[in-house]
Amino acid sequence: MKIYCYSGLGADRRAFRYLDLTPHELVHIDWIDHLKNETLEQYAVRMMSVISVDEPFALMGLSFGGMIAVEVSKHIKPEKLIVISSIVCKDEMPAKYKLVKVLGLHKMIPVWFFKHPTRLTNYFFGAKTERAKKLLTNILQSTDYAFLKWAIGSMLNWKNTQKPNCVRIHGTDDHILPIDNLPTHHRIQGGGHFMIVQKADQLSEIITQAIAQ
């Protein structure tokens, strides 16, 4: 089965490179340029144009990509919807981000935070191993910052209130989207926001089993 996947904010297909989902085919959908004043919901509709619905498929989203996958699943029906390190509706948005939205602080995100990753960056993303730190640095330094700022704004203004039927995987040490009281099927002990790299073997097993059920 083809598993169409969406990566997270500032991330690309490299975030999925350590997953082994044999015998399934992982198909990464690259981000496209956003349109002026486009909402997350509108953007998601354009992001599903490459998906073939003529055969069974699954959707998988990481972080911001999880929100996109949720929106896409409203229009086309996957066999499975898998959400990793993400939320599925606006009510799950952490209170601190709601405050950021009200104060408009997301419009003042410093580029240096991503251009020159620090220990603080690694902490928030949960990058602990040298492999994870190096990959995170490479990904962030090649980020399109205009897209990043738009994506953060669209995420903060997400209107979805529906909780889809999906498989949720979340790390207990996620500092960007804390697990707190999120309803999660699979709690990854010690997993941070970048656990898709550091705990790829564990996630691969969970995802493969979920697809088989």
Notes on the structure:
- By secondary structure, the protein is of the alpha/beta class.
- It has a single domain, classed as Alpha/Beta hydrolase fold, catalytic domain (Rossmann fold, 3-Layer(aba) Sandwich).
- Helices cover 36% and strands 13% of the residues.
- It contains nine helices and six strands; from the N terminus they run ββαβαβαααααββαα.
- The chain has a six-stranded parallel sheet.
- The radius of gyration is 16 Å and the shape is globular.
- The mean pLDDT is 91.
The gyration radius over C-alpha positions equals: 16 Å
Strand order of the largest sheet: 2-1-3-4-5-6
Residue stretches low in confidence (pLDDT < 50, at least 5 long) are: none
Query: CATH superfamily, please?
Result: Alpha/Beta hydrolase fold, catalytic domain
Taken as a percent bin, the fraction of beta residues is 5-15%
What is the 3D form? globular
Assign a percent range to the helix content. Answer: 25-40%
- Arithmetic mean of pLDDT: 91
CATH classification class: Alpha Beta
User: How is the biggest beta sheet arranged?
Assistant: 6 strands, parallel
CATH fold type: Rossmann fold
What's the end-to-end separation, in Å?
Answer: 13 Å
CATH architecture: 3-Layer(aba) Sandwich
Q: Report the structural category.
A: alpha/beta
Count of discrete domains: 1
Task: Count the DSSP helices.
Answer: 9
